[in-house]
Design goal:
The chain is an alpha/beta fold and 352 residues long. It contains 12 helices and 12 strands. The chain is globular. The mean pLDDT is 95. The structure holds nicotinamide-adenine-dinucleotide and thymidine-5'-diphosphate. The site of thymidine-5'-diphosphate has 12 residues, from helix 6 and strand 8.
């Protein structure tokens, strides 16, 4: 289906992946009106979009997806004809200490958007699409062998992945029950510019800069499949425009790393970039108490999106990691602002 949507609601566009998706759509499709809806939690940051915020086809809506009335009103007012839904609570460790906020935003918030879309589109689903962005974590954990395919059963282990699995099920159920057209994609771990320094790679880059300890959970022999965030955004663009109704796509980097090997590589690259002696950053590695319910291994079989839509990652891990480090080193103010909560001041100055 070659979609012809012109008024796209992108939720969570001030966050890490969302900001890259918003930028890609605003720049690639000047005829589309792109509405970025975000409540600006700690993870949302309008600085991520400074370069495109004055474009005519970009609009920012500060709203909470948990507020059903506000979401319904916006659908009536703005007449969105498609949704790309990224807004979520996204960090596993936070979901362990406060699961309820994950249920609220990831499940109820998604339900609010589904209801608003269903009501607004009222059975006229021609050229409408609800594209839900999900994660490979819904599949649970792999052993030494095998890959997650689109047919792998859901088996979530953390409150985060359980809440994402719940939202995926509701999207699918709205498709089956009400005929709402949808696409779901499940992606592996992303990395790149603008990622909040609570996730492994930006947290460790920040700590290496500050010569703080690098807290490795357990024995560090956990495996993740890493994808450069811009390649995820490109995959979303392709699936949005070319994906069939009810399609699901796994998106991954074909790029598995044990945490400890990745951390060693990161330390070596950072030593070079910072002009430190080789081995200096690795001395900061410190093994700490493991994460409860820690999934051993994630790895995606991305052959469906590769064969059907012609997508594959455009950068190698070494290239992507170097670009990422360079971005954080060139944007130390960004890091300082998000870690000190200063970006709220930016927001108030800009919009209040
Ligand atoms: P993020 O935490 O960086 O950003 C989330 C954004 O959602 C923030 O801008 C935040 O302000 C906004 N938000 C949160 N709660 C909201 C609410 N109630 N109302 C409106 N806005 C709200 O997350 P991310 O890493 O960019 O992930 C984006 C999406 O992609 C999520 O759905 C996540 O589950 C999924 N995903 C992430 C990864 C990854 O590696 N980061 C991998 C696969 C899938
Ligand atoms: P993370 O970036 O939180 O992503 P996810 O848990 O969604 O995969 O963590 C990536 C891996 O790094 C995961 O195995 C947990 C581990 N990790 C640490 O060892 N130390 C840390 O401080 C963090 C944040 C993660």
């Amino acid at each position: 289906m070659e979609n012809v949507q012109k008024r796209i609601l992108i939720t969570g566009g001030a966050g890490f992946i969302g900001s890259h998706v918003v930028r890609l759509f605003v720049e690639t499709y000047p005829d589309y009106q792109v509405y970025n809806l975000d409540s600006l939690t700690y993870a949302g940051n309008l600085e991520n979009l400074r370069d495109i915020e004055n474009k005519e086809n970009y609009h920012f809506l500060k709203e909470d997806i948990n507020d059903a009335n506000a979401i319904n009103s916006l659908f009536k007012e703005c007449k969105f004809d498609s949704v790309i839904h990224l807004a979520a609570e996204s960090h596993v460790d936070r979901s362990i200490t406060d699961p309820l906020v994950f249920v609220k935003t990831n499940i109820i918030g998604t339900l609010n958007l589904l209801n608003a879309a269903k009501e607004q589109w009222k059975g006229d689903f021609e050229n409408k699409i609800f594209y839900h962005i999900s994660t490979d974590e819904v599949y649970g954990t792999l052993g030494e062998e095998g890959l997650f395919t689109e047919d792998t059963s859901y088996d979530p282990n953390s409150p985060y992945s359980a809440s994402k699995a719940g939202s995926d099920h509701f999207v699918r159920a709205y498709g089956e029950t009400y005929g709402l057209p949808y696409i779901i994609s499940n992606c592996s771990n992303n990395y790149g510019p603008n990622q909040f320094p609570e996730k492994l790679i930006p947290l460790f880059i920040n700590n290496i800069i500050d010569k703080e300890n690098l807290p490795v959970y357990g024995d560090g022999k956990y495996t993740r499949d890493w994808l450069y965030v811009v390649d995820h955004a490109i995959a979303i663009d392709l699936a949005f425009h070319k994906g069939e109704n009810k399609a699901t796509y796994n998106i991954g980097g074909f790029n598995e790393w044990q945490n400890i090997d990745l951390i060693q590589l990161l330390c070596r690259l950072m030593d070079k970039k910072l002009g430190r002696t080789e081995g200096e950053s690795a001395k900061l590695i410190s093994f700490v108490r493991d994460r409860p319910g820690h999934d051993k291994r994630y790895a995606i079989d991305a052959s469906k999106i590769n064969k059907e839509l012609g997508w594959s990652p455009s950068v190698t891990f070494e290239e992507g990691l170097e670009k990422t480090i360079d971005w954080y080193l060139a944007n130390k103010d960004w890091l300082t602002n998000v870690t000190s909560g200063k970006y709220q001041e930016y927001y108030n100055k800009q919009y209040k």
